[in-house]
Amino acid sequence: MKSGSLFKNRTVLLGAGFSKNFGGFLASEFREILLSDPKIMFNNSLRQLLTTEPNYERAVSNMREPFNSQSPNKPIFEAAVLKAYQTMNEHIHATINDRRRSIKTFAINNFIRCLYPFKNGEINGKSAYIFTLNQDLLLERMLQHSGHAPFQTAAATTNTSWHYTESTDLILPKLHESIKIRDIDQSFVDGIDLTGKISIIKLHGSSEWMNEEGNLLIIGGDKQDSVSRSALFTAFQKQFRDSLGAESRLLVIGYSFNDDHINKIISEKLELGLKLWVWDRPASREACFSGASLFAREKIEPSVAVYINVPFEQVFNTEDVKNSFHPTIDSFLAD
Fold first, then answer.
1. Nearest-CA neighbor of 240 among 204, 203, 272, 194?
2. Domain 10-22+102-333's class?
3. What's the CA gap between 290 and 256, in Å, rounded?
4. Which of 139, 122, 198 lies closest to 14 in space, CA to CA?
5. For helices 73-98 and 27-36, what crossing angle results, to 10°?
6. In terms of pTM, does the model score above 0.85?
7. Could you write out the DSSP letters of every residue in 311-329?
8. What is the pLDDT of residues 172-224, one digit of tens each?
């Protein structure tokens, strides 16, 4: 995987709370969508699995254990998970179309323009990243034709994907088409070029990506193990780690800090001088980080972060890009 020097020494990491602004689902909502699926609702074993496990990803992990490999419930459950992702993509698609010229659309476009204000070919030889833990299609749909610098989803086969369309009209079956990803093929990974573009790097895969074994999604308990078995996701994780230098800044938006492998990278880089901004909606930075204690073992101390608690669309709320938005956000965007 080829990349240039980091543009403006700043990086963004997005979690489910970011997509929630545009019709995405949080983990708790995702669990309820699974429970509302008739094939789970009327299956005692699967319904019990989800009702006794508050974290749906742990339920997914349980169903993928070797002892369940021959279970007749496994394909039923996997199909329900895929259907839930399709439902979320439909909801995001409808939200974007309904609000194409709304305050939310202006907000995300202004945010990207302020984050990476490329001028006069300034992107040449440099790399800019939007790392995301989300597996929805929000960024692809919103950004490809927004007039920014060149975007790509950092897996080469997606660059000509169906969801890059000028039209706001998209037939829903098209929304569910899959894209073949050679995630174990090192030559495929080595051929990905991140230079001169803003790259959307989906650290946990994407809902339309498939490989020989099925859905290419990092879900469940030991995510690091799943990452390590894929040349593509190993390269993505390395790129995330390498982008967090001693003098760099990381803005985390809507992430629950429940993924140990991600927390570990951030923690290690904080010790080396990384500066952290956290944008979320709990009442305080302490409340923002306390939720992670439910599942995560790798903890990040609340005191290390600049905390931002304002509505996303309230900050970037005009069609014109401003020079100043909010003191805490301005401090991240400052040159």
1. 203
2. alpha beta
3. 9
4. 139
5. 120
6. yes
7. -HHHHS-SSSPPS-S-HHH
8. 555 566 677 776 788 888 888 888 878 889 999 888 887 766 667 888 778 89
Alpha-helical segments (H) within 16-154? 16-20, 27-36, 38-41, 44-52, 56-63, 73-98, 103-115, 138-143
Domain residue ranges of the chain, discontinuous segments joined by +: 10-22+102-333
Pairwise CA distance, residues 213 & 223, whole Å: 17
Q: What is the CA radius of gyration of the chain?
A: 19
The torsion defined by the Cα of 258, 261, 262 and 268, in degrees rounded to 10, comes to 120
Q: Two tokens at 30?
A: 């995702």
How far apart are alpha carbons 108 and 317 in whole angstroms? 9
Contact, 4 vs 242, CB < 8 A? no
Tokens read off for 59: 């339920």
Residues 6+ apart with CB under 8 A from 16: 24, 25, 26, 27, 133, 134, 254, 255, 256
